[in-house]
Amino acid sequence: MVTTYSEGVLSEGSMDALTAIPDIGTEIEQGLGGVGDGDFLVSIMADDSLSIRTGEMQSAVMNGHNLILSIAQEQEAACLLHTRYLNGRVINPYVAASRAAPMTEGNYRLSPHGTPLYDQSVVLLGTVIAKWREGPPGSRPRTFTVIISDGADTTSRSSPESVKRLVSDMLLSGEHIVAAIGINDGSTDFRTVFGEMGIPQPWILTPDASGEQVARAFQTIADALALGAGDAQAFRQLTAGPPASRSD
């Protein structure tokens, strides 16, 4: 019998992408949290590079994360939430949304170590897959992953193709949505950057670097989460792209 990703088996390319990251097992373990089942996994990686301070985006990202958290807390489905920063620090290993910590000025400490977008996206997706695989085939949770950056990669050893291999495997099952918010820095073509990482174009949101535009992007994510968390059919429809935001 040929096994498939829907049974939790990764392609050789995805395994190569994961094993190329030094100490990835330790990084994934930091995000897994304790033993606990969830119907829906919400995973967020927020940019914590120094440039995020430009244009007061730090507050906009905090508010957006906390909006997603509040929506996850409202769902009847058992939502587990995981938050990590782009430079690797974890503030929420997978935990029930009702017990997850919000992003605050106290825990959103900006890092001088650049933007390892590809490396840390591999770590994030590896963590999502590891948690998803804890459930038995046929009853695994649906997952919704959001990657947030205000610039292109600056320090990774991984390539965008490495990320794409993982995303492509995940999308085969119909049980995963991978979205990205690229906050306009005036130079980065986020549709190209995230597209090369395998993220479907409808799920690449590119707000201008204003609090209002970033808030609208996060609202789009929150609206999709509210639709897909409790309804498998609605979730599968969302794999084609997000709904119109209520702020439109």
Indicate the topology:
Layout: H1 12-19, H2 24-32, E1 40-46, H3 57-74, E2 79-85, E3 90-96, H4 117-132, E4 142-149, H5 160-172, E5 176-182, H6 190-196, E6 204-205, H7 211-228, H8 232-238
Parallel strand pairs: 1-2, 1-4, 4-5, 5-6
Antiparallel strand pairs: 2-3
Helix pairs in contact: 1-5, 2-4, 3-7, 4-5
Structure summary:
With 248 residues, the chain is an alpha/beta fold. Helix content is 39%, strand content 15%. It is built from 8 helices and 6 strands; from the N terminus they run ααβαββαβαβαβαα.
How does this structure look, described?
There is one protein chain. By secondary structure, this protein is an alpha/beta fold. β2 and β3 form a beta hairpin. Strands 3-2-1-4-5-6 form a 6-stranded mixed beta sheet, with helices on both faces. α4 (117-132) packs parallel to α5. The protein has one domain (10-238): von Willebrand factor, type A domain (Rossmann fold, 3-Layer(aba) Sandwich), CATH 3.40.50. The protein has helices at residues 12-19, 24-32, 57-74, 117-132, 160-172, 190-196, 211-228, 232-238, and strands at 40-46, 79-85, 90-96, 142-149, 176-182, 204-205. The termini are far apart.
